[in-house]
Amino acid sequence: MHNQVQDAEDQLGLSAWTINSNNTDEWDEAKTAIVEGDCDVLLISPERLANSQFQQEVLLEMNEEFGLLVVDEAHCISDWGHDFRPDYRRIRRILNELPGHIPVAATTATANDRVVDDITTQVPDLDAIRGELVRDSLRIQTIEMDSKAERLAWLAENVASFDGSGIIYCLTTDEVDLVAEWLQQFGHGVEPYYGRLDGDRRRELESQLMENEVDGLVATNALEMGFNKPDLGWVIHFQRPPNLIRYYQEIGRAGRALDDAKAVMLSGESDDEVAEYFIEQAFPEPEAFQEVLEILEASNTQLHKYELLKHVNIGWGAADTCLNILRVENAIYKGENGYERTTKDWPYDHDRIESVTQHRWEELERIQEFAATDTCLTRFIDNELDGSLERDCGQRANCVGGFVPSTIEKGELVDVAVDHYKGASTGEISSRYYLPKQDGGRSVIDDDRNMEHGLVLATLDDPGWGTRVREQRGTGQYHADLISAAV
To answer: By the 8 A CB rule, do 263 and 404 touch?
Structure first.
């Protein structure tokens, strides 16, 4: 949002503000600008609509001043969008409460016919206008390369050949750090970027990329929506994204104001494990929803999340998903002291969740096909988005040949990359910081009573020690070098 605010001010001369969790020090100034009519544009995430203080102090103040409501990334409204977010459902309620004369625009670059139909059903009287999907400046190439060590070697050999600055996307923060450290060893000016960095650091990195002060950022999809650098020269995917629409959105960061930009995707079967995990963990089991509702219904007071977790056998992330869905659908209410049950009946929509999950499996199959196809890559994407392209583009890798090598020139680099994985794979398992109290709430565990942090030697999918563990775990005997590394 910081990038969008800057664009609105610098390019359009608007007084633009945002209220989000990363700029709490600016909230009072933003609210004053809104109340006094000095705010032309306010940018928020849909999650902000759940905040009762925001509703009272900001939305109500703006109600008479609304000139236009814009829903960006509108595919998130749809169950069938590649990045469905429950909080986007709140937008429908806002629309119902707005005066009828206020215009509404919903925009997205990544919606097929099914998603468009779903959005127009949820947002009444919406006229759909579709433009061309193909950007002639963007050249695309896919490379099958299952070994992550080989992918590191490929990056070391080829990143310098890309013009301008760019983005290397990874699926996890661990991979972001590992890839960034690897490229830094070879003199590439890249920095890691992901959501858990503090807001100031993220803004600093975005600014460095905007001003071409770095060669690129190695990032998760935290660097995606709203980021606009017209002269971004390239995007590389170190791992295959979980679906083709997300891939298209991420490569769409490149080449907006260039005649030639490049997008390369490295992929292999090992990428499926991450994608399958996120699909399987997207929705908690029906029993979890039911248990949460029953516990809240039986309670005479509001309950915090960590109090609920004492009674429901789910993890922290699953609890967040469960509570968020129930809040959005008004089955529960979050007050100052925790959550409480509302009077609204809430049946578990098994058919809908099964359909959405099945759709995500189908999306995974489609990007697997994309990675392996020898047909026109642009036409493949265009067809997936129900575009109008009727012939091959004649300029992407599968049409005219690759623009970068698909193999590694120096085999010894792979061995160096394996050693890099061995050196970087040791992770930390943090001990618990809090202890639940008998009367509810939690307390910080004293240092002298706390456990030491644990250590992780490797994950099974890494090409360093992980490969050795996979090879030896069924034999009943581990080699001395693996034991030495572990101790």
So the answer is: no
Is the confidence at residue 104, as pLDDT, over 60? yes
Beta-carbon contacts of 56 under 8 Å, excluding residues fewer than 6 positions away, are: none
d(CA 133, CA 110): 9
Quick check: 281 and 353 in contact, CB under 8 A? no
Q: Are 242 and 215 in contact (CB under 8 A)?
A: no
- Tell me how far CA of residue 364 lies from CA of 17, 250, 279, in angstroms: 37, 16, 9
**138-276+377-383+394-424 maps to CATH 3.40.50.300:** yes
Say yes or no: do domains 2-122 and 138-276+377-383+394-424 share a fold. Answer: yes
Question: Which amino acid, 202?
Answer: R
* Prediction pTM value: 0.83
Q: Lowest-pLDDT range, 49-53, 267-271, 309-313, 443-447?
A: 49-53
Q: Are 417 and 179 in contact (CB under 8 A)?
A: no
Give me the pLDDT at residue 412, please: 93
Tell whether domain 2-122 is in CATH 3.30.10.20. no
> What is the phi-psi region of residue 164: left when phi exceeds 0, alpha when psi lies from -120 to 50, beta otherwise?
left
End-to-end CA distance of the chain: 45
- Rounded CA-CA distance 378/134 in Å is 7
Using CB atoms within 10 A of its CB, is residue 263 exposed (0-12), middle (13-18) or buried (19+)? buried
Helix (H) or strand (E) holding 207: helix 199-210
Q: Are 167 and 216 in contact (CB under 8 A)?
A: yes
Question: Between the CA atoms of 466, 469, 474 and 480, what dihedral angle is there, to the nearest 10 degrees?
Answer: 170
Q: Enumerate the domain spans of the chain.
A: 2-122, 138-276+377-383+394-424, 427-486
